Structure formats: structure tokens, C-alpha cells
Amino acid sequence: MKLYSVYILKCSDGSYYTGITNDIDRRLFEHQNGENITCYTYKIRPLSLVFCENFPDVNQAIDFEKQVKGWSRKKKEAIINDNWEKLKELSICKNDTTHTNYTKP
């Protein structure tokens, strides 16, 4: 059975890179060795793998990768730290202008 991995790399500048692959070992090798000079990670090596989740279905993996790419740094760090239950709390809007904080003038 082929598995598809969604992974997060921590880059030397402290940023995170999220990707998808069907061969995590090969892909990590490519990132670490700068196989693609146009890749985001090329100039910010060394890299470390901080998260990896496997999926049996490529469409599930693609959907999860897209979701994670849109997340804040704090949400990414929650799953990196295996703190999945924190995602709901981090999804709540805390802006003063949000409808939950609105008071009539």
C-alpha cells in the first residue's frame, strides 16, 4: 500500500515549510541536499523534520496539506507538539472587532 506523507520542516531561519510526498526519505534528502535551487528551502538549510502524518489516500493528503499551509504558526506548532486539542482554541477569533466581542454603542 502506498502512503502519502504531509510533513513540516523547520528551516534554519525558524520558518516552517509544509509539503507532501509519496517517499518521505527521498524528499527529505532532496531538501537537505538542495536538489532544487528554486525551492523555498534551498537557501535556508539545514532543515529538520518536525512533523509527519501519513495518509493512504492522496486526496486526503492533499487536502490536509492545503489546510496546514493556511494555518498560523501557532496552529502548526500545536500539531508539531502533538497538541491537537489546542487547534479549536487557536481557531477562535480574538480580535476586538469580532462579533463575539461586539457591544452596542
What do you see in this structure?
- The protein has one domain: GIY-YIG endonuclease (3-Layer(aba) Sandwich).
- Helix content is 32%, strand content 20%.
- The protein has helices at residues 24-32, 58-69, 73-80, 86-90, and strands at residues 4-10, 16-21, 48-55.
- It has a three-stranded antiparallel sheet, sandwiched between helices.
- Strand 1 and strand 2 (16-21) form a beta hairpin.
- The longest helix has 12 residues, at 58-69.
- It starts with a strand and ends in a 15-residue tail after the last helix.
- The model has no long low-confidence stretch (mean pLDDT 91).
- This is GIY-YIG nuclease family protein.
- Share of helical residues: 25-40%
Instruction: Write down the overall mean pLDDT.
Output: 91
The total count of helices amounts to 4
Strand adjacency order, main sheet:
2-1-3
First-last Cα distance:
60 Å
Give me the count of strands: 3
Instruction: Give Rg in angstroms.
Output: 17 Å
The first-level CATH class is given as Alpha Beta
Largest sheet: 3 strands, antiparallel
Going by helix content, strand content and strand pairing, the class is: alpha+beta
- General form: globular
CATH architecture: 3-Layer(aba) Sandwich
Q: What is the count of distinct domains?
A: 1
